[in-house]
Design a protein that fits this description.
Layout: H1 2-32, H2 35-52, E1 57-64, E2 69-75, E3 84-88, E4 94-97, H3 99-104, H4 107-125, E5 134-141, E6 143-144, E7 159-160, H5 172-179, E8 180-188, H6 193-210, E9 216-223, E10 236-242, H7 251-270
Parallel strand pairs: 6-7, 8-9
Antiparallel strand pairs: 1-2, 2-3, 3-4, 5-8, 9-10
Helix pairs in contact: 4-5, 6-7
Length: about 270
């Protein structure tokens, strides 16, 4: 009887260990995939790359736990805008190729140029020498795909993604003069139209001296945070304020008119 009881304890312990192992494996496979599917997906990606993109290399492979598929990231050392990805099912079947969407469409080129412009703006406006009471901000190029043109959020000066030449050489400063957009949140003791006008002039001065053009700017003046991290919710903001309107004479009046106009626009959108 004692031996039988010991056997049952051993069997139950073994069964429990198996259950725990299964649960752990299910958890691991759910978030990291399984090795067999990973192997099948990697093989499919490398075969497809050799057959269709011989100048490329499979840079990395991985698992997307959101949809349960596997992916491979491909790059071409000879192309600055050449990276894209393939997506495979757990059985190793190719289900998605982003080459056309990423490379041929100009999307990669748009991202590269926007980042280059953003870096230029950061070098000018996010340094201690700039003296801005910066809370958050960045510069960006307004580059939109053809389908989005005419949307309310798309400015009329936007460049078109599909017009960009993949791997093309561009002067980012010239692009900034065509489609540069600055977005800055500043912290001040007492937001006012006069204070906002002052910082618009200061930002333009800094950008002009650095030779980094832009077309329009958003500036949001926020109250400084108190010691407990809170601050009044009221602020003063202008959206898409034109570069050409940033000059001292009558600036406060133009800022006031812009604030009033954008408020009316928001009310129309909400109806």
């Amino acid at each position: 009887m004692k031996r039988l009881r010991e056997n049952w304890v051993w069997i139950l312990g073994l069964a429990l260990a198996v259950v725990v192992l299964v649960v752990v494996l299910v958890f691991i496979f759910a978030f990291f995939g399984n090795p067999v599917s990973h192997l099948l997906a990697s093989r499919t990606a490398r075969q497809y790359q050799k057959a269709h993109y011989p100048t490329y290399t499979v840079e990395s492979t991985g698992y997307n736990f959101k949809n349960g598929n596997y992916y491979a990231h491909l790059t071409d050392p000879g192309q600055v805008d050449g990276d894209f990805s393939l997506e495979m099912s757990p059985g190793g079947k190719l289900v998605l190729n982003t080459y056309e969407d990423r490379v041929l469409s100009g999307e990669n080129t748009s991202r590269r140029l926007s980042m280059e412009y953003r870096d230029l703006c950061r070098q000018v406006l996010e340094t201690e020498q700039a003296g801005l009471p910066l809370d958050f901000g960045f510069g960006d190029l307004e580059i939109w795909n053809q389908q989005a043109l005419g949307n309310h959020d798309c400015p009329d000066y936007a460049l078109v993604t599909e017009d960009l030449v993949p791997n093309g050489t561009y002067d980012v400063r010239e692009l900034g003069a065509q489609a540069g957009h600055l977005i800055y949140y500043l912290q001040v003791e007492s937001p006012s139209v006069e204070e906002l006008s002052h910082w618009l002039l200061e930002i333009r001065r800094l950008m002009d001296e650095a030779g980094v053009p832009f077309v329009s700017i958003d500036v949001d003046l926020r109250y400084l945070r108190s010691e407990d991290g809170t601050r009044p919710s009221t602020d003063i903001r202008v959206n898409n304020f034109p570069y050409g309107e940033i000059y001292a004479d009558g600036l406060a009046e133009r800022v006031t008119a812009a604030i009033s106009a954008q408020g009316n626009d928001y009310n129309k959108i909400g109806k």
